[in-house]
Amino acid sequence: MSAPSLASFVPVPPGSHFPIQNLPFGVFRSSPGGSARVGVAIGEQVLDLSVVADAGLLGDVGDVVKDTGCFHQSSLNTFMALGRPVWQRTRAALQRLLSADEPTLRDNKALRTNALHHQSHVLMELPAVIGDYTDFYASKHHATNVGRLFRGKGNELPAQWLYMPIAYHGRSSSVVVSGTPIERPRGQLGLPPSSPSSSFASLSPLFGPSQQLDFELEMAVLIGPGNERGESIPVERALDCCFGMVLCNDWSARDIQRWEYVPLGPFLGKNFATTISPWVVTMDALQPCVCSPPPQDPVPLPYLRDPSPRTFDIRLQVFIAPSAPASAASVPAAETPTTAPPNPPVLPRPPLRARTPCCPLTPLTPPPLPLVRRRSLTDCRLSLCAAATSTTCTGRYPSRWRTTASMAAP
């Protein structure tokens, strides 16, 4: 955690998502076909950590990161495996290096030119190699709404939801960085029963592209050091394993999911794509957003009780661009799942220089285009623009406020 008054010699525009208090980590290329390496975002720039580490500018943590070569790699995995003390020391060293009163990098023009790249000139990559992926049904509001959608009113929450974490394992190979085209999945499409008491038994499914392609705004946590097989991580040590958060879009084909999910849960309706943002906001950067959680009722079993319970007060926003020019349209209330049109046009993929990533921690100005829906939760803003209206959905857009991403519930 750093002082709000801390300033950087790198210009940071008013309202930027990347002040010195943030410094999210990501993987980038400065040219197509060039080598990928690790950087942090500061203002409108990306600081190349491979250059900084090779120049010996990271203080007492420099030898650790230099020996592992973690900043010359095409993923954050090696750095994340070094553990929280190394993450914190690295972040503190970077804040010192980038501070307005530190001359080492500020006054070295040649080194500064080599180390800083404008964000509009780089291509962002998937920040980590995803070896495993678990999707938690974490929001009571969301679980209730989805339960009502699939099981009808009065039978929304399964009994065990109040007692234990509910999750399923997703397909890690389909986790992609924002901007990767998403193809509308094909499968057996289940028609909803005419009433909550009726069943699918007498219904014949159809096969074809999903007619109810949905997006879900979620937060995803990247895990650093893990545990040995058969060894549990106590609740009080869980935060030490959490490197940071990304925005995540848990794409869902609701009609496929509706037909298949009983009795074993989601499969083809959820495994075709999960989009995450390229910048990882560290847990230390998110400390200003920490708050007390609401009381848990019933009280969790002892192994799930956190001696220092906390959660995050983060505002999440969605801006949706319609598939064709139109006036602003009204849509169902926020708790009603959104679906994309069945046969929308393809959005063109923008050129390299237009791919400006987004990892916001500050308020946004709404985009200058018709808004179909805007959805906000709590405060301390992380924001999202999801173009859920095309057969090939893209998320890297010319404007810094636009990216495809999502929060944690299936």
CATH architecture of the largest domain: Alpha-Beta Complex
What is the number of strand segments? 23
Discrete helix count: 9
Biggest sheet descriptor: 5 strands, antiparallel
The separation of the N and C termini measures: 31 Å
CATH class descriptor of the largest domain: Alpha Beta
Radius of gyration: 22 Å
Q: What number of structural domains do the residues give?
A: 2
Q: Provide the CATH topology of the largest domain.
A: Fumarylacetoacetate hydrolase, domain 2
Look at the structure and name the CATH superfamily of the largest domain: Fumarylacetoacetase-like, C-terminal domain
Description:
The chain has helices at 49-54, 62-68, 77-81, 84-98, 103-106, 109-115, 140-151, 238-241, 254-260; strands at 25-29, 37-42, 45-48, 116-118, 123-124, 134-136, 167-169, 175-177, 182-183, 186-189, 206-209, 213-214, 217-223, 242-249, 252-253, 274-276, 281-282, 290-291, 311-312, 315-319, 374-377, 381-385, 392-393. By secondary structure, it is α+β, with helices and mostly antiparallel strands. It has 2 domains: 25-124, Roll (SH3 type barrels); 134-183 and 213-252 and 262-393, Alpha-Beta Complex (Fumarylacetoacetate hydrolase, domain 2), CATH 3.90.850.10. Strands 4-3-2-1-5 form a 5-stranded antiparallel beta sheet. Strands 8, 13, 14, 16 and 17 form a 5-stranded mixed beta sheet that branches. A hairpin with a 2-residue loop joins strand 2 and strand 3 (45-48). It is globular.
